Amino acid sequence: MASFLNDMGSDMIYPVWPLFVTSLGANMAVLGFLDGLGDSLVAISQAVSGYLSDKLRKRKVFIWLGYLFGALSRVGYALSPTWHMLVPFRVLDRSGKIRNPPRDAIIADVSRFENRGGHFGIIRAMDNLGAVCGILVTIALIEHLGYRNIFLIAAIPSVLAVVLILAMVRERKGTASVYKGLRLADLTPNFRLFLFLNSVFSLGAFSYSFLLIFAGKFGFRTMTIPVLYLTFTVFAFLSSIPFGRLSDRFGRKPIMMVSFLLWGLVCLDLVMFQSTAAIWLAFILFGLHRGAIDTVQKAFVSELVPEAYRASGLGGFQMVIGLVALPSSVIAGLLWDNIGVLAPFYFSLLLAAAALVMLFFVKENAMEA
């Protein structure tokens, strides 16, 4: 429920974020920088919180602090007069992702191999259901309240999430064992390959903001664009649990392959057909892609590292992927501004194909199979 509430607040902002940033005078390169900076900060904060969570054997404190950071950042967005002022609050907002590795480690800890994918599917479904509700609120109120008032209201659900975590969530008591940290040398060649191919994929998987701006370039009105964001979020919500359960039954790797193929279809669709129908289809495919990759990727990682290092492994993985996000969005913005709106999609398609080929050589290594 806390995850539902926080994502409800977050996704009151996300559908209008690129429109808000560009309304303050930012170009596409700046938008790519802000999104990439945010993703890179997510990466660093998750690595730190994952390490500290395993070292201290504590999970809960990182979760409620992460929700609190998100609430405070939205107030900051509402008060920012120029895009330059958004930067420190973007830092605070994305630092709130310190909650993810400890939260995911809790889920992995209380799961078994045969139901772990389903459990990650449930948490992603709640994330996406909260997003659906947040988007609906924005669609209903944006014309009447404007960006800044929406941002202020969006802080409220995350405050409620903090209260829920503090009052209702329990965690297992930590052991007294000495934790020395997870080193690169401790990772198997199999996991290193998995990490590398996901980095290659992420270098081309630019921010969703580009999809929304692309839709605006091809005839979608400002007030219709949040509906596109709603569409992909609904399909992510509907597909998260099924993809998780399919990965429990058939393995993590086949569903990861499906997620890469779905992203490739998004790019192909927009490259080949610049039409209203093609854009609607692209957002449906994008939602299915997110439902698959967000669910299965974390379950996969949690099984490729030892149990004692789960939060560190999840945080380290997200750190590498997130650090790649900064050049990814900046490159996409530069390609868009200097070559054309289709250039980022060609670039992404090439990298997705390379990642898919490498994934064939990864072996599933379920610690508890």
The SSE order reads HHHHHHHHHHHHHH
Q: Count of DSSP E strands? A: 0
Given the structure, what is the number of helices?
14
Q: Tell me the CATH superfamily.
A: MFS general substrate transporter like domains
CATH topology type: Growth Hormone, Chain: A
Structural class: mainly alpha
Mean pLDDT: 82
- Low-confidence sequence ranges: 175-181
Overall tally of structural domains: 1
Q: Which CATH architecture?
A: Up-down Bundle
Residue share in β-strands: under 5%
* Radius of gyration, in angstroms, nearest whole number: 19 Å
Shape call: globular
Q: Helicity level, as a percent range?
A: over 70%
Summarize the SSE layout with pairings:
Elements: H1 2-13, H2 17-23, H3 28-56, H4 60-79, H5 86-95, H6 100-109, H7 113-168, H8 189-204, H9 208-217, H10 225-250, H11 252-272, H12 276-304, H13 310-338, H14 343-359
